[in-house]
Structures are given as C-alpha cells and as structure tokens.
Amino acid sequence: MNREPVWQPSASQAALKSRAQQLAFVRGFFAKREVLEVETPVLGRCGVTDVNLDGIPAQVSAGTRKGGWLQTSPEYHMKRLLAAGCGSIFQISRVFRNGEQGRRHNPEFSMLEWYRTGFDDVTLMAEVSDLVCGWLGCERPEIIQYRDALRRWAHIDPFAATDLELMRRCEEWLEPEQLADLGRDGCLDLLMSFAVEPNLGRGRPVFITGYPASQASLARVSKSNGYETAHRFELYVDGLELCNGYWELTDPREQRLRFEADNELRSRSGKPEMELDEAFLAALDQGLPECSGVALGLDRLLMLKLGVQDIREVLAFPFERA
Amino acid sequence: MASYSTNEFRGGLKVLLDGDPCIILENEFVKPGKGQAFNRVRLRNLMTNRVWERTFKSGESLEAADVIDQDMEYLYTDGEFWHFMLTDGSFEQYPADAKAVGDALKWLKEQDVYTVTLYNGSPLSVTPPNFVELEVVDTDPGMKGDTAQGGSKPATLSTGAVVNVPLFITIGEVLKVDTRSGEYVSRVKSS
C-alpha cells in the first residue's frame, strides 16, 4: 500500500504541552527529594536475556566493537551507577522494544526509572503513589496480592493450580494446540492480561504484588504462606499497567543463574540466546547497595492524565509517522 | 502461499483461519511489561460473514488467503449465475452464484461496475458502489406543490429494490441511492 506520508504530529498541542508539564513535575518531584538525575546510554553493547523482551539491534561500528542494542530499559547501567556509589538516582530515558505496537504500545517510549537506596518494596510503593497521585490527582492505590487478584477475577489459584488446570482455564482464549508450549507463566500472563487486568484500578488505583517466584525477574524472593513470592509490584490505573518495581536482587550468583535460565528458555522457544552483560554482573560482584527500583511508562501516565485511550494521542510522532 | 506473523496483522489483511478466508477487522496487541505478548484479533469470516474473536500468541502466524478485490462490470444473468467482466481490458468473465451476489442483487444494473471479491479465482462476494443511480419503475402518483416537506412513500426501482422516497418523486425519474443504508439520496437531473 502506497500511502501519502503524514507529516503532522498525532498528538494535539494540548497533549504536547501537558507532556512538557509532566516532565517538569517529575523533575521537581525528585529535586525536592534530592534524588539525582542521571543519563545512561540508550545504545548499549548488550541487550537483555528476558525471554519476553525483544531488543532492537543496532549496526554500530566504533573502535573495535561492532553491533549493539538499543536498550529495553536503563536498568543495568543505572545499577552500575548504584554500585559505584551514586546513591538514589532517577532517569527519564527513551527505551526500545521490538514488535510492540498497539493502542498502549509504541516500539520507542519514554521511561521514568528510579532507584532508592535503603528502600524496600513497600516504601518505594508509597513513593510511587506520591508521584502518580500527585500528578493525576487520584486516590491512593490499594494493594492486592497477585494470588488474590487471580482468585478473584480469573477464578483460579495461581500457586495451587496444576499446570493442567491452568491450561484448561486458558482454553477460554486459546486452542489446546496453542497452549501446548505456552508454559505455566505464559498461562498466568494470559489470565492476567485477559481476565484480571481489565478490572484493575477501576475507580481506585491498584498495586499488584507478591508475584510468583518464576516471574521475579530481578526482584528478590521470599516465602509467604508457604509459597515463594517475588518482591515485585505493578501499579494499575484504569486497567492500564503503569509501572513495575522490585526490591532489587543484589546477589550476583543468583542473577547469573537467572540470566542463564532465561537463555535456556530463549533457545527452547527458538529465540537467539543473548550475550550476558558481564559489566553489569561485575558491578553486582562489587556490590549493589540494598535498594528498590521502579520503571514507569511516562506516555501511559500522560494518557491517564488526559483521559485518552490511544498512546498515539500523546506521542508527537508514533513509529508509523516517525 | 505466504503467511503473516502477528506483528504484520492489520485491518484489511486476508488470512486463512480454520480453512476459511477471513479479513482482519481489528488487531489488539496485549502484553504485560514482563510477560508473554498476545494479539486479540477480530476477523470476519468471508464465507459466512460471521465475526470471530481469536487470541494468538505473538509470533504465531496465519496463512495468507488468496483473496483479491477486482473491479468488474455486471453483464447479465442466466438465472443461475450473474456474469461479471474485468474492467482492465482483458474482457475476462466470472460467473457469480446467488450466494456470492447476496444482497448486492437488488442494486445490480447492467454495465455498472462492482467490486467482486475473488477467492482462489472464484467470486466470493459482490459489493456495490456506495451510490447507484436507478430509475423508478413504480410508485404512487406524485403530488403537485409538495416539495421538501413531510412524508414519504415506497418506490420500486428498475432492479426491484424498494426505497422510501419523498412524495414528489414520479415514475421514470432516476434516483441516487446509498447502497449501504438503502436510503434515497437525491434525484438525478435528467438532461
């Protein structure tokens, strides 16, 4: 299809103005709390091993290095700054995720990521509430355990259910042959996306916390009610997933094992294995201070502020116009 | 035949699903930040016209359906088939059966051009242009002096279609009709 190129922005003037105000609000928020603003590379040597995140490779040729990745998150670089003794830091950066496009996704988007030394997940959740509610003027979020959310809206216990029971539950959305290689976490993600998420944060924002250990990613894990759960939280406002935070894992050996497990999962699902970010692992070896960190989608925050349903209404130039 | 991966899905794409040709109406990308991505897709089955909602894991693919839209001139009917001819100068003819012609039947006028959807080379459906011009063959007598104001009456058109028209319309006049709503639009000035 040959369409005329569209040169105009897809966001209104009012949206662009609100975006600038949002940036000023965020910077003011952290300045008052004496959290240092930092900038780390958007273009890195390594990508991420996470099986559900596809980076965008770059054809870099500089010095002896060839190739690189547009970063899916500034996490590893920021943790290296933490290991270097920077203290609490925040960053507003562009991040890139291949293949993600839709009403709530654009392959390039604005991420606010911050780390608080000495904070646990509960303390950081309170700060997230201060920021989000301070900007949106919304009610402070309630906290719902992952397990309770799945039981309430998907009618299944995510910890006690067998793999077979989970697959059966998912047959409402997928054919048995599609489910065969989805795996336990894939089933849980499906239920979360289709049965739970649309109900979250209607009226009052909701933190979901206590994720299964298998979905811990870079969060530390502890036992509660006999099940291993991750110190990970997500905030939902009006059915929209806004941020993802961890009480950060600081154990370099555990981190390396999780990366290797990711790569195994990758090769099993036919995705290329990713080179481990050894500089990041070396920083963990040196010692990451006890901290919690969170990443928040600024474009989605602006969608909520303006009450719009499509991310293109808050981006000057979404990818199809870029 | 080519296939399309979920990240190529978009409205208008024609794919095979459960052996039937379908057109994608909507494709919604759904993904928790740290989790598996899915595509929620609404499709219309082109054989049955039913709308399906299906979920795909991102990265799954569907075979492309050999479905194309062609402009064709309506020629005639032999009672069993309605014959159309490509307007590209090839004079190639295609017979469409009653199922393919469907609701377009009441708007078919010889020598007018229609969109014929071909599936594996055979007519699957016929879509009339948004507006057609047809002659009134039967309606109650027009009332003098009655112009734009009030009231309507049924009028039978040359194709057999019946539309509601203003009271001043008379037999022999040519009308512009919106085929999507089946509503009268205006009179066509006769020269």
Can you tag this structure with a few keywords?
heterodimer, A: 322 residues, BirA Bifunctional Protein, domain 2, 9-stranded mixed β-sheet, 3-stranded antiparallel β-sheet, 10 helices, B: 191 residues, mainly beta, OB fold (Dihydrolipoamide Acetyltransferase, E2P), 3 domains, 5-stranded antiparallel β-sheet
Summary?
The complex is a heterodimer of chains A (322) and B (191). Chain A is an alpha+beta fold and 322 residues long.
Question: What features would you describe in this structure?
Answer:
The complex is a heterodimer of chains A (322) and B (191). Chain A has 10 helices and 12 strands. Chain A is an alpha+beta fold. Chain A has one domain: 2-Layer Sandwich (BirA Bifunctional Protein, domain 2), CATH 3.30.930.10. In chain A, strands 1, 5, 6, 7, 8, 9, 10, 11 and 12 form a 9-stranded mixed β-sheet that branches. Chain A has a 3-stranded antiparallel β-sheet with strand order 2-4-3, with no helix packed on it. In chain A, helix 5 (163-170) packs across helix 7 (183-196) and helix 8 (252-268) runs antiparallel to helix 9. The longest helix of chain A has 20 residues, at 13-32. In chain B, strands 9-8-7-10-11 form a 5-stranded antiparallel β-sheet. A 5-stranded antiparallel β-sheet of chain B has the order 14-13-12-15-16, with no helix packed on it. In chain B, a hairpin with a 6-residue loop joins strand 8 and strand 9. The model of chain B has no long low-confidence stretch (mean pLDDT 91). The chains are: A alpha+beta (322), B mainly beta (191). Chain A binds chain B through residues 50, 52-53, 99-105, 173-174, 178, 182, 185-186, 188-190, 192-194, 197, 215, 217, 234, 241, 244, 295, and chain B through 7, 27-38, 40, 55-58, 60.
